[in-house]
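An instance follows:
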Amino acid sequence: MPSARPEVAEVLARARAIAGAARERALETEAARRIGEDIIAKMRQADLFRILQPRAFGGFEYGFEVFAQVEAALASGCGSTGWVYGLLASHQWLIACFSQAAQDEVWQDRNALAAGTYAPVAQAEAVDGGYLVSGSGGFCSGCDNAQWQFLGGMIPQPQAAPQPGFFLLRTSDITIEDDWRVMGLAGTGSKRIVARRAFVPVHRAVTFAELADASCRLGLHRPLARRARDGARSRQQLGDLGSVGGQRRERVSSCSCRPGRAA
């Protein structure tokens, strides 16, 4: 049975309690170079991964404003823990951007989580019913804690050039290479994932172009779709501002000003 949707204040109280436990474990987390399964279990028990999960699959379908507050609360205890939570929890929204068939498959286990790497570097061969995917992606934070993995790659298109997008693979179908040995945020476990001719059915692949279009034929739930659309509009506005800013920077860089001198 899905949990009743708690008040935001209750969700934040749960996050702060887990932050305290994560703070006590911070040095151990950094030494282990991954988030411990006991901390992940506490987050699951507190229903923190349901913030952006669709209600149809037992989630709370809150907005990104609630999600951001929860992530900040967790990160106040341990930066690595907050980082990994932010990705695993936001990927619940990304799963909801895939086809209904993909969502049904992933959330047969309502507690399933997905990590991922985004650059479209993997290559794929179209076969009957799907693709054989090969390639690797680095900086896959939280991959040890996830049952599924997003792998960016080029998705074959009928009678057209391949398009960049995501393949969604079971963790059991990829290999995790332990190459994450760093000084800071070591506990994020941001290792490399590798696929070697792993079969991915058609319903577990989606292009970036489809993701950017909230009106397309994906299985995105309506409230989440509206938030995606509003986010896209905000990014467009920021892009417009960035263009103006770029013009200003170009004008500034072309002037003969020197430090200590007025223009």
